[in-house]
Design brief:
Length: 173
């Protein structure tokens, strides 16, 4: 799919066809796209947890202030960053900023790649970090940054409008 088409069309999906699985090859393709994102100094501090386990998905939904649609998706990808890797390379700026930005870039690639494969996703950021870490048994230096349920949409849904470009851009000629 052409990149502008994918960017324009992608929208958050919060309702999934629970009976339709996502093949492993497609998940691998999405993860490959995630890992093509840029990272500061090409450090690649991102770590991905790919969850199919029903109990773990339910635990993540609970940790995400009970957003149950997370558990409905056949696959949930949790995008994390290893803060120590970023800090080792870039000190506090690495730990506090680059590690988060790097994971955000990967997350956007996941959303776009999934969309181009006909899948729906939603970037879920509202969650109790300690609860997600406990559910996934994450080491303390690995910070969960985004929960992304992935599945075939059960409803097309609508994309909310964006602000006009002129309201968000300052041109400096
Ligand atoms: C950092 C971040 C956190 C978000 N957290 C949630 C969330 O916890 N739950 C949810 O349903 N959507 C969440 N979203 C999705 C946004 O609500 C959605 O992207 C926005 O309303 C624009 O809609 P669209 O994705 O359909 O274009 C989040 C998006 C981002 C980028």
């Amino acid at each position: 799919m052409e990149v502008f088409k994918a960017i324009r069309e992608r929208k958050s999906v919060r309702s999934f066809d629970e009976k339709r699985d996502v093949p492993k090859e497609v998940v691998d393709k999405i993860l490959e796209a995630a890992c093509q994102a840029p990272t500061a100094g090409n450090i690649q501090p991102w770590r991905f947890w790919v969850i199919r386990n029903i109990q773990v998905k339910a635990g993540l939904a609970t940790a995400a202030i009970n957003q149950r649609f997370i558990a409905q998706a056949p696959i949930v990808i949790v995008v994390c960053s290893d803060l120590d890797i970023s800090a080792e390379a870039y000190g506090e700026r690495g730990r506090e900023l680059y590690a988060i930005q790097d994971a955000a870039c990967a997350t956007e690639n996941i959303l776009l790649a999934a969309h181009s494969e006909g899948l729906g996703t939603c970037w879920v950021g509202a969650f109790y970090e300690e609860d997600v870490s406990r559910v996934l048994n994450l080491p303390s230096h690995v910070k969960p940054l985004a929960i992304v349920p992935v599945g075939y949409p059960s409803h097309p849904g609508t994309k909310p409008d964006r602000m006009p470009i002129k309201d968000v851009v300052e041109y400096v000629d």
